[in-house]
Specification:
The chain is mainly alpha-helical. The protein has one domain: Hypothetical protein af1432 (Orthogonal Bundle). Helices cover about 60% and strands about 0% of the residues. It has 10 helices and no strands. It is globular and about 65 Å long. About 35% of the residues are buried.
Length: about 230
């Protein structure tokens, strides 16, 4: 933790680790947290307040019930409630809460927001994971490879996201997920920092384009008269 070594900070660290290990999580787990923190390390020079960004990473999905917007708000409130007791200055607490709320909709990031750019880029770095079957690359230690912290491929990620929304019927999920992918692909740049764009942009777009094609095929097969051949 970057909130210090006080008893309050150690207790907070234990609380956050326990939250990230909740059994209902499938993607938003400690593996995701480790990958985000590793990606932040790769982008560290881009941040204006690296400590605030790292704290925001710890809190950004600390509350996770699968309710977009609500989860981020509750997570931000948790940061505001816990960090002052750890001796974190009020200005940094406010910045952490702002950054956590920002992850609810990455497209609200404003130009010049260096801290927000680093956190959002790190949160989306998974989109550039190896497509499938290459766990050596997934945990490789090559320069700029955030996956050294977690053996997740893009297919692992996509499956885990589906598992977190297991309560949503297949067609509704495919429609909603397709809309998310189309919105991301329509952006001029997925990543806001120059380093993240250089490292991850091309592969992330290829991964999402492939997933979108698979979802479109599944939706077509689900239509009356559609081709249901595997």
């Amino acid at each position: 933790m970057v909130a210090g070594g006080s008893a309050a900070a150690l207790a907070l660290g234990a609380e956050l680790v326990a939250r990230w290990a909740e059994p209902h999580r499938r993607y938003h787990t400690r593996t995701h947290l480790a990958a985000v923190l590793a990606a932040i390390d790769d982008l560290a020079d881009e941040a204006a307040d690296l400590a605030a960004v790292r704290l925001a990473a710890w809190f950004h999905d600390a509350v996770y019930d699968g309710r977009p917007g609500w989860d981020e708000e509750r997570s931000a409130q948790l940061a505001q409630a816990r960090l002052p007791a750890c001796g974190v200055p009020a200005g940094r607490v406010a910045e952490v809460a702002r950054l956590v709320r920002l992850t609810a909709a990455h497209d609200t990031l404003r130009p010049g927001d260096r801290n927000g750019a680093v956190l959002c880029d790190a949160d989306l770095a998974i989109l550039a994971a190896p497509p499938s079957g290459d766990r050596t690359r997934a945990i490789g230690a090559a320069s700029g490879d955030f996956r050294r912290a977690a053996a997740l491929t893009y297919d692992d990620y996509a499956r885990a996201i589906r598992q977190e929304y297991a309560h949503v019927p297949d067609v509704a999920f495919a429609e909603g997920r397709s809309a998310v992918l189309r919105r991301l692909l329509a952006t001029p740049a997925l990543y806001r920092t120059p380093r993240a764009r250089a490292l991850w942009e091309e592969r992330a777009r290829a991964n999402m384009t492939g997933e979108l094609a698979r979802l479109r095929a599944a939706l077509a097969a689900a239509q009356p008269g559609g081709d249901e051949t595997p």
